């Protein structure tokens, strides 16, 4: 049963960014993917359902913004005058940005349902849903709430090391159980190139993500290296894709966005 | 208009009624002190630090005979891999689970109860019940310290653990990035709400030294944790650098402190372990 006119009717493609493991760069990848897609002329929204650790507002430097209501529900926060990227996160609803949301499952589920149904996104090419780590209430509720709108699928993020890959392997099983298509795996923090002598050190190992993709039969979207300029951009809420095209993480990030775009054009043709 | 004392009486009554629903704190049988390692943010090095610090407690505290490590991350249990342990726990005659042991540390984790590739797709209530089992239905024996490795976030598991057992102290670990610090702050706030003392902060992944040219890069920023500690009025227990050794040894299931005890990384962890012990209250006799 799909309501005739809902807040998600104008959204062309919905994709989730998942990981079994925390701290692998889901929010980073969500942010950079949104920025890359914007640079390809698309209108993008990001829904941040990480209620305990909402990182997205900060990455766009809009953490102090307020959220307003309109007739159809909540108005998402636009990151600039352009209005090409809009966000919704619990971060905007907290009185102080460092307020802790210490809630049990049922309360979280209720808010997530509201987030999925009651944000007036308008017309979007892509809605990216950034999730917390794991396979818990938030994930089950989000996937179930989005199911009627037929999401494009999920991008899984991992770092190369064994403990991350292990958790992401579990996430793949979760996707299968929930009937969520896996668009591919991203291996993040894959190698660090010393800015001084260009020696590459695999601090978090290398290849684990690629191997998992091969093993599981899902597309491998690429390796993103550790890039201090990327970390800095995110801290300062800057547009990495616009400002650092020569930086080491740029080619990988734009390539991931391109593969997502190619995937959608194949689907509609 | 009610008078001042009337207001107070009302507040007391309200507090008493609200607290009726809360679980009573009961210590785990045989465990002298519980130390909790949390972060708010995922992927900052909790599990890595947890197993190393537990090892140090055992190694360097002469009065310490037995230590335990509980991996409370139900969704992403990392401890089995890091401690090179596998398999279903045996049951004692009293139907308690026997912890798996390696490097002298008794370990329990969700990872021992499920298949390696199976996800735990559970809602909060089931998770709480699993955590309760991991706490109370384990034959820990007599432990001087039980270190609990918390999952990321500030939700069901953290609440259940904090409300059910008395905790001697919590240590919060973070990397210098803004987003990690934000979550570390929330974790500190959460512990304050549930009346668990925070012993201090650990700054992890503080700096990376290129093995070839020794150039230092602050990949994730610099000193963010120091600033946060100052704001919150907490101590920094120590800094841990990024080093390939740490990850390599975790992947192979042998903590860096055992395979490379003289390394900078091992020394950094040792210092932190000593600081934690200094700040813990005197254990009960």
Automatic annotation (TrEMBL), chain A:
Record has Metal-binding as a keyword: yes
Protein name: NUBP2 factor
Cellular location(s): Cytoplasm, Cytoskeleton, Cilium axoneme; Cytoplasm, Cytoskeleton, Microtubule organizing center, Centrosome, Centriole
Pfam family, one: ParA
GO cellular component term, pick one: axoneme
UniProt keywords, alphabetically: 4Fe-4S, ATP-binding, Cytoplasm, Iron, Iron-sulfur, Metal-binding, Nucleotide-binding
PANTHER family in the record: CYTOSOLIC FE-S CLUSTER ASSEMBLY FACTOR NUBP2, NUCLEOTIDE-BINDING PROTEIN NBP35 YEAST -RELATED
Source domain of life: Eukaryota
PROSITE patterns named in the record: MRP
CDD domains xref list: Mrp_NBP35
Molecular function GO terms recorded: 4 iron, 4 sulfur cluster binding; ATP binding; ATP-dependent FeS chaperone activity; metal ion binding
GO biological process: iron-sulfur cluster assembly
Quaternary assembly: Heterotetramer of 2 NUBP1 and 2 NUBP2 chains. Interacts with KIFC1. Interacts with NUBP1.
Gene that this polypeptide is encoded by: Nubp2
UniProt entry tagged with the keyword Cell inner membrane: no
Function recorded in the entry: Component of the cytosolic iron-sulfur (Fe/S) protein assembly (CIA) machinery. Required for maturation of extramitochondrial Fe-S proteins. The NUBP1-NUBP2 heterotetramer forms a Fe-S scaffold complex, mediating the de novo assembly of an Fe-S cluster and its transfer to target apoproteins. Negatively regulates cilium formation and structure.
Automatic annotation (TrEMBL), chain B:
Record-level GO cellular component terms: mitochondrial matrix
Coiled-coil residue windows: none
Localization per record: Mitochondrion
Record keywords: 4Fe-4S, ATP-binding, Iron, Iron-sulfur, Metal-binding, Mitochondrion, Nucleotide-binding, Transit peptide
One Pfam family hit: ParA
A single GO BP: mitochondrial respiratory chain complex I assembly
InterPro entries named among the record's database cross-references: Mrp-like_CS (IPR000808), Mrp/NBP35_ATP-bd (IPR019591), NUBPL-like (IPR044304), P-loop_NTPase (IPR027417), YlxH/NBP35 (IPR033756)
Lineage top rank: taxon: Eukaryota
Obligatory cofactor(s): [4Fe-4S] cluster
Single Gene Ontology MF annotation: ATP binding
PANTHER family cross-referenced by the UniProt entry: IRON-SULFUR PROTEIN NUBPL
Function of the protein: Iron-sulfur cluster transfer protein involved in the assembly of the mitochondrial membrane respiratory chain NADH dehydrogenase (Complex I). May deliver one or more Fe-S clusters to complex I subunits.
Family affiliation: Belongs to the Mrp/NBP35 ATP-binding proteins family.
The protein's name in its UniProt record: Iron-sulfur cluster transfer protein NUBPL
Organism: Baryphthengus martii (Rufous motmot)
Gene name of the record: Nubpl
């Amino acid at each position: 049963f799909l309501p005739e006119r809902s807040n998600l009717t104008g959204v062309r493609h919905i994709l989730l960014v998942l990981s079994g493991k925390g701290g692998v760069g889901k929010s980073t990848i969500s942010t950079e993917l949104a920025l890359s897609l914007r640079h390809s002329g698309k209108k993008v929204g990001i829904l941040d359902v990480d209620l305990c650790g909402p990182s997205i507002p900060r990455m766009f430097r809009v953490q102090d913004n307020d959220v307003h209501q309109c007739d159809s529900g909540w108005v998402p926060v636009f990151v600039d005058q352009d209005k090409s990227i809009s966000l919704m996160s619990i971060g905007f609803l907290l009185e102080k940005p460092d307020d802790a949301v210490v809630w049990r499952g049922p309360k979280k589920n209720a808010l997530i349902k509201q987030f999925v149904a009651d944000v007036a996104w308008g017309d979007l090419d892509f809605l990216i849903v950034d999730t917390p780590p794991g396979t818990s209430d938030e994930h089950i509720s989000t996937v179930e709430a989005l199911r009627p709108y037929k999401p494009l699928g999920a991008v899984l993020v991992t770092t190369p090391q064994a403990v991350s890959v292990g958790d992401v392997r579990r996430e793949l099983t979760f996707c299968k159980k929930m009937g969520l298509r896996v668009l591919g795996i991203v291996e993040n923090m894959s190698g660090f190139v010393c800015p001084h002598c260009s020696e590459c050190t695999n601090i978090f190992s290398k290849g684990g993500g690629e191997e998992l993709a091969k093993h599981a039969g899902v597309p491998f979207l690429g390796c993103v290296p550790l890039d201090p300029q990327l970390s800095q951009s995110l801290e300062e809420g800057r547009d990495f894709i616009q400002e650092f095209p020569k930086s080491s993480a740029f080619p990988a990030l734009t390539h991931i966005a391109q593969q997502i775009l190619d995937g959608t054009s194949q689907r509609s043709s | 208009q009610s008078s001042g004392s009337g207001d107070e009486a009302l507040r007391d009554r309200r507090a008493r009624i609200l607290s009726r629903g809360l679980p009573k704190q009961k210590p785990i049988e045989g465990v002298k002190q519980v130390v909790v390692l949390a972060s708010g943010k995922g992927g900052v090095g909790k599990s890595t630090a947890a197993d190393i610090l537990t090892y140090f407690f055992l190694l360097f505290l002469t009065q310490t005979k037995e230590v335990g490590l509980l991996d409370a991350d139900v969704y992403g249990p990392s401890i089995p891999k890091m401690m090179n342990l596998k398999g279903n726990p045996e049951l004692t005659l009293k139907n308690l689970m026997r912890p798996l042991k390696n490097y002298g540390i008794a370990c329990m984790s969700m990872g021992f109860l499920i298949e390696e590739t199976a996800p735990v797709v559970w809602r909060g209530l089931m998770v709480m019940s699993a955590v309760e089992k991991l706490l109370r239905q384990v034959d820990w024996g007599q432990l001087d310290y039980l270190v609990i490795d918390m999952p990321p976030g500030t939700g069901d598991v953290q609440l259940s653990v904090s409300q059910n057992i008395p905790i001697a102290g919590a240590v919060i670990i973070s990397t210098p990035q803004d987003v990690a610090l934000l979550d570390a702050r929330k974790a500190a706030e959460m512990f304050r709400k549930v009346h668990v003392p925070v012993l201090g902060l650990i700054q992890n992944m503080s700096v990376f030294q290129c093995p070839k040219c020794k150039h230092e890069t602050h990949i994730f920023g610099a000193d963010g944790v120091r600033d946060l500690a100052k704001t919150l009025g907490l101590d920094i227990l120590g800094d841990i650098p990024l080093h390939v050794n740490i990850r390599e040894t975790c992947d192979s299931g042998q903590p860096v402190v055992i395979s490379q005890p003289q390394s900078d990384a091992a020394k950094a962890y040792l210092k932190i372990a000593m600081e934690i012990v200094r700040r813990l209250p005197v254990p009960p006799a």
